[in-house]
Known about the structure:
about 140 residues, alpha/beta, 6-stranded mixed β-sheet, 5 helices, about 30% helix, about 25% strand
Amino acid sequence: xxxxxxxxxxxxxxxxxxxxxxxxxxxxxxxxxxxxxxxxxxxxxxxxxxxxxxxxxxxxxxxxxxxxxxxxxxxxxxxxxxxxxxxxxxxxxxxxxxxxxxxxxxxxxxxxxxxxxxxxxxxxxxxxxxxxxxxxxxx
Length: 139
């Protein structure tokens, strides 16, 4: 089918993507990687080995840490075409008491990691009615 053709043709080849708050399974990141993108993931928790094999690198990090941007650039090389973020909140298995980053913090991180012309797809501006994805392009 279509997905098999996308995978075969590596339709995202040449794209650099970083998924902030990738979650336990890093599903989006692993799909993007299977389609040819270079993909890094970030979450407060490490990824399991079977999921880690489906991405180019993972950074276990509190995005609120003062050195988070420097750490992410050092570990990934920055200059991403796309930054994705769908951080809902800390999960029940996360016992680290890490606070969900503010929308302003997500924007600050994304602006630093994106190359000019790159896109941020963010769910940081949630409302009581649910998801409200924002797409921003870096000039």
